[in-house]
């Protein structure tokens, strides 16, 4: 189950094929290595035994090899997917790229040039004419990133732990389970019992605990593990806790008050009347991240009411949402797979938050299989991909103070934590009334890489 599909890297006129060998699927791409390992060279061979092929490949990747034609040069420039001017000198096989809209020197001997216009993740560089692009030239093709694995959770016996009932649970070293009703006016009561490690994967199960017409007896919520002493500043009883149950859930006292004993959870316990239960896990206070490549392999279900998600939230300097920034990598509901980046607008209020989003529709057949979500993030951009297809790419300058009046939450290596969960209903999850439960989200692995350079 675990493992990555074969990967083909092409740099004209060079192609590298990385993938399955000896019938055993590799657990990671060859150009990604684990933190602390003795590095192989970038072609998967021991660094002290370079082959003749590897030496030739390194030469080509360094740009020392000749580019054979205008056509090959155009493909290299097109890979930048940016506006610019492409220049080719056939005698030495040189290929250069000048970004923007530079002028052309028509008298440069031996040179020809073409204008590059970006679209759909690549660019078209044509037609070719005599002359050389003026300006500061850059290598025609940008290098391929080299990623190093810094953290992963395979949700197997190496990380999951056995609880008092003999059930494997996600590692408490990495994850904290949320408890209670949380956000988005969702219908589920989160509890750790709904997250389990099975067959080398994380399984989050959303359950229908009762039908909507089955009214619970007594109070909807109970005050637990709370002292009414004056120094607490908050008196709780079953009646005052009633506002903490759907559809009345509040985002302030008393619903945000936590138990005063050793147990994790809200002081207003509404679990016994919950119509739905599910699980949400977060790495806050245990694992935080900034720039890098984040990858998740999962199988999801977006029947009406189901809302699986994987997202990152800024956690620094006590900055509130949306000023702290949010990155929704996997945000799926009602046959839609969405990705988005959210930050503060000029006022800084939640009501004026700015969201940049992209989405695609899926069907029931698509949801039968595992898919790979990726977030690539550096100081310049955020790109979110599904099965290698770009769903969203955002230039991070959109969140600069000149545009928003607030510090950019996505730059300068600010720390974010991860949340992984399955919600029910809420703002966009849809109506769960006609959906058969349980509904599950299966997570094969989660990996985080940092960029060590480029080819």
How would you explain this protein's 3D organization?
By secondary structure, this protein is mainly β. It has 4 domains: 7-63, no CATH class; 70-139, no CATH class; 150-209 and 274-454, Jelly Rolls (Sandwich); 215-273, no CATH class. It has helices at 52-61, 70-78, 401-404; strands at 7-11, 14-18, 32-34, 84-89, 94-99, 104-105, 111-119, 122-125, 129-130, 132-133, 138-139, 145-153, 161-162, 168-169, 176-177, 188-190, 195-198, 201-208, 222-223, 268-269, 276-278, 280-282, 292-299, 306-314, 326-333, 336-343, 354-361, 371-377, 381-386, 389-395, 416-424, 439-454. It starts with 6 loop residues before the first strand and ends with a strand. The model is unreliable at 1-31 and 33-64 (pLDDT under 50).
Q: Briefly, what is this?
A:
The protein has 455 residues and is mainly β. Helices cover 5% and strands 38% of the residues.
SSE map:
Layout (H helix, E strand, L loop, with lengths): L6 E5 L2 E5 L13 E3 L17 H10 L8 H9 L5 E6 L4 E6 L4 E2 L5 E9 L2 E4 L3 E2 L1 E2 L4 E2 L5 E9 L7 E2 L5 E2 L6 E2 L10 E3 L4 E4 L2 E8 L13 E2 L44 E2 L6 E3 L1 E3 L9 E8 L6 E9 L11 E8 L2 E8 L10 E8 L9 E7 L3 E6 L2 E7 L5 H4 L11 E9 L14 E16 L1
Parallel strand pairs: 3-12, 16-21
Antiparallel strand pairs: 1-2, 4-5, 4-7, 5-11, 6-10, 7-8, 7-9, 12-32, 13-14, 15-22, 17-18, 18-21, 18-32, 19-20, 22-31, 23-28, 23-32, 24-25, 24-31, 25-26, 26-27, 28-29, 29-30
């Amino acid at each position: 189950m675990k493992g990555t599909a074969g990967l083909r890297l092409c740099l004209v006129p060079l192609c590298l094929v990385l993938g399955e060998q000896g019938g055993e699927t590799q657990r990671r791409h060859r150009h990604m290595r684990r933190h602390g390992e003795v590095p192989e060279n970038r072609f998967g061979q021991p660094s002290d035994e370079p082959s003749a092929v590897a030496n030739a490949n390194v030469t080509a990747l360094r740009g020392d090899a000749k580019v054979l034609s205008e056509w090959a040069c155009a493909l290299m420039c097109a890979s930048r997917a940016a506006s610019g001017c492409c220049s080719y000198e056939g005698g030495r096989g040189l290929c250069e790229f000048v970004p923007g809209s530079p002028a052309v020197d028509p008298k440069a001997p031996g040179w020809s040039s073409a204008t590059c216009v970006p679209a759909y993740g690549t660019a078209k560089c044509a037609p070719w004419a005599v002359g050389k692009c003026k300006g500061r030239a850059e290598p025609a093709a940008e290098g391929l990133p080299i990623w190093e694995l810094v953290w992963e959770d395979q949700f197997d016996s190496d990380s999951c732990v056995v609880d008092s009932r003999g059930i494997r649970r996600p590692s408490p070293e990495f994850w904290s389970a949320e408890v209670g009703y949380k956000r988005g006016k969702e219908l589920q009561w989160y509890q750790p019992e709904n997250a389990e490690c099975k067959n080398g994967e994380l399984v989050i199960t959303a359950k229908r605990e009762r039908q909507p017409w089955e009214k619970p007896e007594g109070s909807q919520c109970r005050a637990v593990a709370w002292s009414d002493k004056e120094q607490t500043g908050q008196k709780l009883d079953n009646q005052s806790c009633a506002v903490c149950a759907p559809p009345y859930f509040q985002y302030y006292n008393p619903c945000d008050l936590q138990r005063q004993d050793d147990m994790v959870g809200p002081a207003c316990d509404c679990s016994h009347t919950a119509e739905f239960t599910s699980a949400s896990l977060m790495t806050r206070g245990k694992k935080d991240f900034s720039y890098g490549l984040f990858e998740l392999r999962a199988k999801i279900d977006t029947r009406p009411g189901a809302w699986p998600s994987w997202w990152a939230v800024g956690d620094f300097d006590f900055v509130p949402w949306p000023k702290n920034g949010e990155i929704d990598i996997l945000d799926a509901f009602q046959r839609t797979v969405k990705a988005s980046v959210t930050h503060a607008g000029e006022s800084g209020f939640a009501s004026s938050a700015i969201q940049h989003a992209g989405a695609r529709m899926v069907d029931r057949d698509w949801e039968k299989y595992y898919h790979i979500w990726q977030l690539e993030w550096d100081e310049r951009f955020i790109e979110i991909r599904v099965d290698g297809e770009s769903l969203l790419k955002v230039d991070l300058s959109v969140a600069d103070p000149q545009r928003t009046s607030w510090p950019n939450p996505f730059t300068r290596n600010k720390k974010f934590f991860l949340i992984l969960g399955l919600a029910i209903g809420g703002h966009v999850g849809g109506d769960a009334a006609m959906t058969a439960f349980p509904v599950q989200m299966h997570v094969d692995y989660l990996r985080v890489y940092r960029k060590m350079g480029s080819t």
